[in-house]
Amino acid sequence: MERAIGIITTNYSSVNPSELTASRPPASVPVLGRFRMVDFMLSSMVNSGIRTVGMILPYKYRSLVDHISRLKDWSLDRKQGGLFFLPGTAFGSTSFEARFLIRDLLDNEVILEKAHEPYVVLAAANIIMNIDLGEVIEAHAASGAEVTMVCTEAKEADKALLTLKIDDGHVRGIKFGVEEHDVAFLDCCVMSVDSLRGFLAAYKAEDYLDLFEAMERDMGRLDVRPYFYEGEALPVFSLETYYKNNMKFLDEGMLQEMFNNDRPIQTKAQDIPPAKYEQGSKVKRSIVSGGCQIAGTVEDSLLSRLVIVEPGAVVRRSIILQSCVIGAGAHIEDAIIDKDNVIPAGTELKGTPEAIFLYGKGSIS
Amino acid sequence: MGKKECIAMLLAGGQGSRLGALTRSIAKPGVSFGGKFRIIDFSLSNCANSEIDTVGVLTQYRPYQLHNYIGSGAAWNLDARDGGISILPPYATESGGSWYAGTADAIYRNLDYIAAHNPEYVLILSGDHLYRMDYRKMLEDHIAHDADLTVSYLTVPWEEAHRFGILLTDENGYITEFAEKSPNPRSNQASMGVYIFSAHVLIEALVADAANPESEHDFGKNIIPMLLADGRRLLAHHFDGFWKDVGTIASFHETNMQLLGHEPEFDLYKPGWPIMSNSPTRPPHYVGPNGQVENAIVANGSMVLGTVKHSILSTDAYVAEDAEVIDSVLLPRARVEAGARVVRAIIGEDSVVQEGAVVGTGDATKDIAVVGNMVVIEGSR
Q: Nearest CA to CA, how far is B103 from chain A (Å)?
């Protein structure tokens, strides 16, 4: 297999800031019960044989570094290579939220300078996907392209994504935001380490731009090609897509597709016992994480770790994050309850399917 | 290497032959328990939580899966640079080699390991037991009484006393008599097989025992009686908590079931004493639109499309639509397919109960049904 290093950027902000991203960067937003967004790209890289990963950190890096810091869980506790935490600037200043800010890449060029591997996979961390990057790297090497951009046909509009304008098998331009059926860039690309360094040198004067924003004017002459990813790719950049794309995993078979044992998605291991159902529990079409204790009713919902649902409590069409207690007889519907909240007995918290109710983070973090 | 106050020697070489099909391919300490754990997790976690950072694990029977599971010990925070876990299988020397002949022989043959750490005290444990215990309290007791050996015990029902090493104590808590598995026990103070020795006492006793051709080289049968006869200070330390040696299929099943219910006696959800484990990272479990789960423990990676009542589902277990699992334990990756019924049974790792098959019976006078690892129970189609 062709060898590559990985660079994951995690320091972009959110176009749709919400209370979920007030206290944590988008990359460490909890999803699917026990995971964080960054787990998907980091695991995809490790599963593809990448053993040197640079992670460009956001200003509020605590939750992210805490999540990643047991490098053994990621097979990145290595004498050569491993995971490098790289400083990132707080924000870009471009017309859209830069995912690959030139300045950040230039500031951390040392990781490219020292790389023995010929290729680099450059990716952000806010798309739920389990991608075989080995195939992308092979395809890139075989095509002779300068840049290979991973993309998919958009299933719905999303203003946080980038559209690739494709002509004759080449990427000829970009557009901010995607409409249904557009070719959506999945914030993941492959190029040679030398090419990336070349681009960084060429665009140095515009280091406040996103790499692809700067590159656009040259796309006519550069050999930039799309790689169409066939698997499930679920972007999570807003509260709306967060809710919708978590809920998709309540469809039978979705979990197995994303979490096949050949390419495991890793996450921070925690020493908590499995979930426990008590007498009288009624649970249907739900995802339940370790350490939960359920005596009430849970339907069409996702429970993160250590959630307690007391007798008579009802949770419907909701996402309950870690360590919440849903008190006896409380009713939660169409809501997202952020971590560490204690919902007192008998409380009603209801959104509607059109307007999901978000209950912010509890006082303990 | 620095001097350690106390190191642990963990006996994990037993077959656990009375667990039958469950230990055909893995030693008893490696048997899955409680959904995401393996039996050895409990004693390793007790060591880590008791701040004992040097643990020698003695293995012998079917060691590969157990060695693989223990790995570097990192899962229990036991991958310390100075100490950590060392796996100690039987080995050959220039005068030949042989299997460990008994618990005492196993430790005797690893006196080099003990000497390398030069501890004041040696804690001897079994990897077969399920309990949460702070060994520091026992060590404090041992030191405060200037004992040569401290044996921890619990009070058991009289009718079970014949299965244990039974000790008699004087009014100061010192042991006056010790009898291993006596048909007529004289007390119900049962040894848990957890010992703290002052290191020099242990070394002298093991050397003397090794030279005795009559000895079975067993702590309960030989070492403790010998020390008593020598007039050593043997202290009894009372343990007041849940402890179980799951020796048989019935007790394995029963102890799993004891985890269920609200605040049970063996409560894994009580905070402050985490049971650590080297279980794989799997997604949370899924309950389908027609799933029904009540009074159960369900581990990550599982799928429940049918009915699960009063049961334990271990990592990556699968219960299909219209399948029923009642009063049972599914071990990791066990599958119960559509329309199958599993009642009062244990289904081994990677085993499959095919469509329409029935395993076990609700008749409580019958034994618990057991399907070993990697077995396919064919359906009635």
A: 31
Contact B275 A271 (CB under 8 A): yes
Confidence band, pLDDT 50/70/90 cuts, at residue A72: confident
Whether residues B35 and A32 touch (CB distance < 8 A) is answered with no
* Cα B171 to Cα B156: distance, rounded to the nearest angstrom: 20
Please give the Cα distance from B228 to B66 (Å, whole number).
35
pLDDT in tens, B175-230: 999 999 999 999 999 999 999 999 999 999 999 999 999 999 999 999 999 999 99
DSSP codes joined into one string, A42-70: HHHHHHTT--EEEEEEPSS-HHHHHHH--
Cβ contacts (< 8 Å) between B307 and chain A: which residues?
Answer: none
CA quadruple B167, B172, B176, B182: dihedral, nearest 10: -20
From CA A331, how far away is CA A326, in angstroms rounded?
8
Helix, strand, coil % (nearest 5) of chain A? 25, 30, 45
C-alpha distances out from residue B275 to A66, B297, B315, Å: 21, 16, 16
Going from N- to C-terminal start, the domains of chain A cover 4-258, 276-359
Q: Does A287 sit within 8 Å of B285, measured CB to CB?
A: yes
Name the A residues in 39-78 with CB < 8 Å from any B CB.
72-73
The CATH class for the domain spanning A276-359 reads: mainly beta
B266–chain A nearest CA distance, Å: 12
The span from the CA of B196 to the CA of B205, in Å, is 13
B-interface mutation test, from A276, A292, A293, most B Cβ less than 10 A away: A276
Nearest CA-CA distance, residue B261 and chain A, Å:
6
Query: Could you read off the pLDDT of A10-40 as tens digits, one per residue?
Result: 988 766 667 787 778 889 999 999 999 999 9
Burial of A173 (0-12, 13-18, 19+ CB in 10 A): middle
C-alpha distances out from residue B315 to A217, A243, B200, B335, Å: 52, 27, 44, 11
Q: Tokens representing A150? A: 């991973």
Residue B298 forms contact with A (CB below 8 Å): yes
Number of helices and strands (H, E) in chain A?
9, 28
What is the ipTM, given to two decimal places? 0.94
Question: Rounded distance, CA B315 to CA B319, Å?
Answer: 12
What's the longest Cα–Cα distance across chain A? 67
With an 8 Å Cβ cutoff, are A273 and B283 in contact?
Answer: no
The overall pTM is greater than 0.80:
yes
The reply to whether CATH 3.90.700.10 applies to domain A4-258 is no
Q: Choose from B37, B77, B294, B297 for mutation: most chain A CBs within 10 A.
A: B294
| Chain B contacts in chain A segment 227-256 (CB below 8 A) | 252, 255-256
* B262 in A contact zone (CB under 8 Å): yes
* Residue B245, min C-alpha distance to chain A (Å): 20
Q: Same CATH fold, A276-359 and A4-258? A: no
The pLDDT assigned to B149 comes to 98
Q: Do B274 and A272 count as a contact with CB atoms less than 8 A apart?
A: yes
- Give start and end residues of each alpha helix (H) in chain B: 40-49, 63-70, 103-108, 111-117, 135-144, 199-210, 224-229, 249-257
